[in-house]
Each structure stands twice: as C-alpha cells, then as structure tokens.
Amino acid sequence: MCGIAGRILKAPGRVGADLVELMDAQEHRGADSTGFAIYGIPRDDGFILRGMGFDNARISADMEDFRLILKEHGADFLEDPTFVTSDAAHYCFRMVISEPDDLARWVKDADTMTDRFEVQSCGRSLEIIKDTGSSVEVADKHGVRDMIGTHGLGHARLATESSVLPNASHPFWARPFPDVAIVHNGQITDYFTWRERLHRLGYRFLTENDSELIAVWVSHEMSEGLTLEQALKKSIKDIDGVFTYMIAGEDGIGFAKDRFAMKPLVGVWEDGEFAAATEEQAVRRIVSGECDVINYDGPSITEIWGVGNRRAAA
Amino acid sequence: MSEIVIDVGERPIREINEDIQAACKTGRPIVVRNTLSRHNLGVGLPPGANLHFEGSVGYYCAGLNTGATVTVERNCGWGLAEGMSDGHVTVGGYAGMSCGAAMMGGLIHVKGHCGPRCGVAMKGGNIVVEGKIGYQAGFMAHKGKIIALGGAGDSCADALWQGEVWVAGEIDSLGVDVDVVEPTAEEVAEVDAILEPLGLVDSSRNWRKMISGQRLWYFESRDAGAWLMI
C-alpha cells in the first residue's frame, strides 16, 4: 500500500505546499519514505539536477569528480550546488548545470559514480525531492512547502518489493529523459524480466524498486514513437501486476490503472485547478467544500491532464 | 426527539466514533457534519441507532453495522458497511470499491453507481444499486443478492459461489463461470419484495439473473483456462 498524489495549478503557485498537504493526509498509507516531483517555472537553457550522495563526509570529493565528468561533456555548474545534510549518512544536492553536448551520454558517464552519488532528477523544470520519513519530515528538511511551480507529484511509500532506502523512494526520474517523473501505487510482478530487456537496450536502473521500471518503460515506448496516451494504454497490456501510476512531463500528468482495478485514484477539478490522490479525504485537504469527486475506479483506464499556463505569475 | 449533532473536521476518528457510540445510547437521531470524506466513520453501530452523514464519507463507513439505519448524503469510499450483520444503509450518490464486502445481513441501497467488486465475498443480505454496478460485481459472493437497476460493468458476477446478481439494463461483459438464467415469477416477486419498501418496483424490467456455473467450485484440470482468467 502506498499513497500517490498529483496537483495542477492554472498558473505558477504554491504547488509544493499543496503536495505536502496531499501527502500528509495519506501518511497512513506508507510513512517509510516520502517524495515529491515539482515542476517549477521552466528554464530557457541548462538543467536543474537533484540527487544524493551516500557519504556526507565526501561531498567535496564527489563534487570534484562529478564536475570533471560534466566538463568532459562540455558543461559546467551555472550556480554553486546547494546541499541538505542531516544525521543520516546521505546528503541531498541541488545544482544547475549548462547543457551537456549529449544528455544521454553524459548521464551514462555520470552514472559511473552511482555507488556513492546519484542524479535523481534532471530537467528544465523538474525537481525530485525524496527521502526517508513522513511528508512533514521531508517537507521540513527540504523546504518543499516553499517550492513554486505549476504541477507536481507526491508519493508516500510502504515498501513491499525492496528495501527502505532514501534513493529507493519515489518519485522516479525516467533517466535519461529530462523532465519525466513517475509515482506508483502497487506491485509490478514482472519487473525483473522487463528490466533485463531494457538493460539490454542500454537503460540503467539505480535501485531494486519495481516502480523505477515504469518511468523508463513509458519513456522508452515514447522514444520509439508512441504518444503518452498510447504508451499508457500499452502499459496496461504489457506490464504485469497491480498498479495505479502517474507520470508527469512538462505539459501535464497522465495516469494508468491495471486491468484488475485494485488501486484507487480520485480527482477533483475546481476553478481550473486539479488535485488527484489515492484517497478522497486527501483531496479534501485542498478542496474542503463538498465537491464533485471523480472516482477513477474502473479497470484498464488512462487519462491525461494538461497543464495550461506555465510562466505567467499566479 | 431532537437530533444530536456531531462535528468531524480534523478531530481523531476514535474520538468521533466514541461520541457516536455515546449518542447512540440516547436513542435520539444523530447527524454527523463536516465529514471531509474521512475514513471509518460510524463503525460498529448498535441496533436501533439512526445516523445521517452530511456530505461524503471515506472508507469503511458503517462497517460491522449490527442493525443501525444509516444514510450518507453524497458519496462514500471503499468498503461501505463491510462485514455488516444487520441494518439499513443508504447512499445518496456513488459508492466506491467493495461496498458491502463480506456483509452477512441487512440492506445497502445505493442511489448512484457503484465501484468495482460490490458485494465481494458477501455472505448474506442484499445490495440494491439504482445506477450501474462496476467491474467484477459480486466477486466470490457466497450468499445474498446484488440487484442493479442501471446495468453492470465488465466481468459481472465473476466467480460466484451461491450469491446472485440481478441486473436490469446493459451488461458490459460477464465474469468467469457465470450462468445467466431466466428467473421464475416467484423469484421476481422476491426481488420486488426487496425493492418495494424502497419505492423501486417496476414490473416492466427485463431481469437477468446471474448465478454460479459451479465449474469453479471444484478444481478440474480441464477448467484450468477459467481459473487462469481470475
């Protein structure tokens, strides 16, 4: 059992604060770890990176090595990286980089460091913040409530398929595709087979988490020419297990639900803004009045919710 | 008798349920307000209690009911009246997944549509849905009746034991091991007797009654294909 949430605003606003509320209301569904994918106001050039290193005594050494790889690909830091540290062994970073010559090739080289350091999101606007602990703990530690953006995802994890580790939390970035993130509620039963196939195509997975597969699977299908809608529909036939997952990109959020209809999702539109969550009581944190909630209860369903205005002030 | 009003808001559910139980002892009608779609409201209600929930409720509302009369103004989440042994539960709008799961007696009346697997593993009692019943309605129902007046979704009456699913209207598809049978006049009269107090009798309905084909009651290797469908 996990809890997921999505939020779309009609103009840039306090999407971080809303997602923290949506996830706090669903903490009982899984408080092992909590994560957020926030789509801020997009940059015109360069990428924002989020991620973590696993030994906070090695921050400067990690940065040196990481920067070296960046430079080999014709890129560099555009701002000084910032860090969040705690009593835990791992540290989290945020950085802004100029554009590598070939993003996929750079990601592949940067991933040679993943035994101690990993990039967990990359995009013009996407930032993934994830950690062990509850929604409020992760929000306090990483300042999620202050994050401004147009849309985003949230996830509360109850680990069933793999260990509780900060980097095994959701959301997952669809490496190496910029600005794509997923959250998943359920279990993928054939993920090992699918990972093997995608491995052979050159994709890299950083955790043992079954959900990481979905991000790469959908992005791969899209890179092969499918639209998001087609990829979502195909996943219901091709991926085995019980799932409701949401996948976000720069222009919106899509979701797919398995053929057994095992994992709930509700949504509500109000005043041109959208909130979705596993449980209705969570969206009522955002829309407290009686409202017409959409129950996405049927089997094998998909939908895509678009994001309108990404740059105008709220 | 004047009603007792209980406010939900952000208070702990245990405290609200204790208030509800105390109010039930007075014998007065109870109105529960500001429900915010929260879970586990009014679980384990005693016989004779009379509750009305304003707005929408979350999961397991009126679960383990032992004889109370409950109305929900709008929608409810998963597992409405799960494990109910007796009572009468009415939902004004939509009932989420698994309403009446494992119920043993009493009546659930849903005025809107129903989510997937209503009456899953029910062991008695009746569920009346004025709208459409969702995917896999009556999944493995042991006993009791699910009566849908507005059609049924896919995989209707999947893997029944001795429960019955009655549908007036379109059925998107049948589940595994279902026999659709012509009901006798006596059987239709039994269903009408359930609908009559709800004011829902309509003699022009073209009923389809679904019961178990009994192939899944015992495993036989020639039926392996049907088992794999589940």
Describe this structure in words.
- The complex is a heterodimer of chains A (314) and B (230).
- Chain A has 314 residues and is α+β, with helices and mostly antiparallel strands.
- Chain A folds into two domains: 3-42 and 124-306, Glutamine Phosphoribosylpyrophosphate, subunit 1, domain 1, CATH 3.60.20.10; 45-120, ACT domain (Alpha-Beta Plaits), CATH 3.30.70.
- Chain A is 25% helix and 32% strand.
- Chain A has helices at 15-24, 59-72, 103-110, 135-142, 191-200, 212-223, 228-238, 280-286, and strands at residues 3-13, 33-39, 47-53, 82-84, 91-97, 117-123, 126-132, 149-157, 172-173, 181-188, 241-249, 252-257, 266-270, 273-277, 294-295, 302-306.
- In chain A, the strands form three sheets. Chain A has a seven-stranded antiparallel beta sheet with strand order 7-2-8-1-14-13-15, with helices on one face.
- In chain A, helix 6 (212-223) packs across helix 7 (228-238).
- Chain B has 230 residues and is α/β, with parallel strands linked by helices.
- Chain B has one domain: Pectate Lyase C-like (3 Solenoid).
- Chain B has three helices and eleven strands.
- Chain B has an eleven-stranded mixed beta sheet, sandwiched between helices.
- In chain B, helix 1 (13-25) links the parallel strand 1 (4-7) and strand 2 (30-33).
- The longest helix of chain B has 13 residues, at 13-25.
- The mean pLDDT of chain B is 95.
- The interface between A and B is medium-sized, with 14 and 24 residues.
